[in-house]
Amino acid sequence: MFTPHSLGIALMMMITSAICWGSWANTYKGVKNYRFELFYWDYAIGIFLISLILAFTMGSMGDPSTSFLANVRTADRSNIVYALIGGVIFNAANLLLVAGIEMAGLAVAFPVGIGIALVVGVGLSYALQPKGSPLLLGLGVLFAIVAVLMDGKAYAALGLAGRVTTRKSIVICVISGILMGLFAPFVTRSLTTGNALGPYSIAVFFTSGALLSCFVINVYFMKHPLAGQPVQFADFFKASGRDHLLGLLGGFIWGTGTVFNFVAASFTGVAISYAIGQSAPMVAALWGLFVWKEFAGGGAKATNYLALMFLCYVLAIVLVARAYTTAS
Questions:
Q1: What is the DSSP string of 177-215?
Q2: Which residue from 60, 62, 111, 146 puts its CA 20 to 30 A from 32's CA?
Q3: What is the pLDDT of residues 44-86, one digit of tens each?
């Protein structure tokens, strides 16, 4: 299977991961009158399909003894279970984050959710797999958190946070962030303990857990949405072919980023790979700034916050990369 043999390649895969994680939501912007709970079915199928495709291509290159199928046959069953659990946790977190964005706005939901996820995910992953300089890694995470907060400030400068922020919406964002950070330690465990899963195998079982859990979690949110009216499965089949394809494409983009993140983690450790991957809000802000014109009319205040956000994210990536090379 293909794995990076240098920090440069691993770093490029982690940056690609952040680009994918920050870009997939553009596909949802392209659909028309298609509720997220319905779009999410296409998305969940997409992340599973792309993980399989990459497992049978990149994950099956070279020595057959290290291929995807060979790894699955020799891996401990417990590691497969942990990867599935990680996918379930991610799926719940992702659905809650979207609900939080709808209820509280990006200016509140993104900084709270992703900021908490960074602290929880990197901290627990490092505790399980202490790889890299803890000082530099901690500073990198700190700058990433500041960057997320600056992102929220930029949105707030536009007046997007003008809607009422309820206690319920804040609680949802906090729970989402905790869950989003909790899936990384399960991946770390599967990747490092006993007869471990390889990065491609983890991706397949992780996305399997996400897809299967939709039949419980997403069905619940379809019937009891945190925002908006309930939706029916019949509405899914009324959507256009274009909307379904956009949902699959969104899953393909996010899934590719996830596989690349796991592959890079096999070289640098999950804590470092996860931290750089969580630079996704910077990518999302770039899309919003230059493509969707979300910051039009924000004035100098929004521009200054965006500049600080980009600066902090660059510093975060440099520090996290140095966390690995310093310890090596």
A1: HHHHHHHHHHHHHHHHSSSPPPHHHHHHHHHHHHHHHTT
A2: 111
A3: 999 999 999 999 999 999 899 899 999 999 999 999 999 999 9
